[in-house]
Amino acid sequence: MPDLFNNPAFYGIQDGAIEDGRGLRIMYPTAENYVFDAPILDGPYPLVVFAHGSRAGSGVQLCPTDVSQDYKRWTSVLYVLARCGFVVAAPDLSNTLSDPVSASIVLEETVRWMHRHWDGREVLFRPSVFLDPDEYRLRSVAAKDPRADLAGVGAGLGIGDDDTHFLGMPTPVGVIGHSWGARAAALAAANRNVAVDAFASVAGAFDDNEVVSAVSSLRSTLLVAGALDSLNASYLPPLWTQMPVPKSQVLLAGADHWSWFSPDSGLHPCQAEDRSAYCPIAWQVLAEVLKNFMGKQLLNYWFVPPYLLGSSGGQLTLMNQLWNDPKCALRVRWDDPRSVPGSGDQTYGFWLDAPSW
Prior knowledge:
two-stranded antiparallel ribbon
């Protein structure tokens, strides 16, 4: 299969619903240059489930006003994951986010539905059958196939699919949540009712003891916040001391709670406001950070030095402005025994007055 992490494909979208009728947007790699209902490129791929946030108590009136479609409004961030070799599933949580336990159950149900009922679920399982070259040759000879020596072409990988066997082991699963959605994602990962291998929070609201306890029990964790989002950024330092390794935290200079959307998509303040202090590519920076974090945790892609962002190589690189726009400066710290070095604190761009952790 192609190396989509370093050579991204196109992405496709399927809009549908899980068993309870709840809306679900699925994004995935495709070889076709159109989006809706494009055929899925052969996998396997890790699964990432995304939990959008709640607008309640934000103090900002956001448009479009229909909250029932918020699960679709993160496409400008999540499509990068889909292009780079992940399947992303984003359920509608608009009627459950006030209760993080109920919302976490929806995320668990989404993982199960993707594995059991999604039409493309084969790409969410690792091949589990050894392709025996001797057996292929015997079958070919028995069938009097003159190309016996070529039988089983493609078996050189050693493993593959066999329609007579079950789908195999599921690929790794990651969860991402924004704001209150991060609370639900943390609980879903900590409950272990479904296997979750990595957790990422974007401007997470960690004002609940049960959620803090959940985050403190997780491994392979990333917390992202904007420096202009003072409340949610304030959760990062105390959580750092509680989180087990491996762990990473990211702070973006010119971002607040709702800065993570492309200007022509997603959510935006209904009233025009001065955005001169904001990073105009926060959504692109976030997409890169999430892609590289999930790439390390779910795809085992490591770089030298393997700090969180890694080297650019042939990847989608959407972060050039980090180097010439102070509003887009980024601070990253990590503690991961698998890295070289195993821990560190890195600033990207010109952030002369970067706050201390």
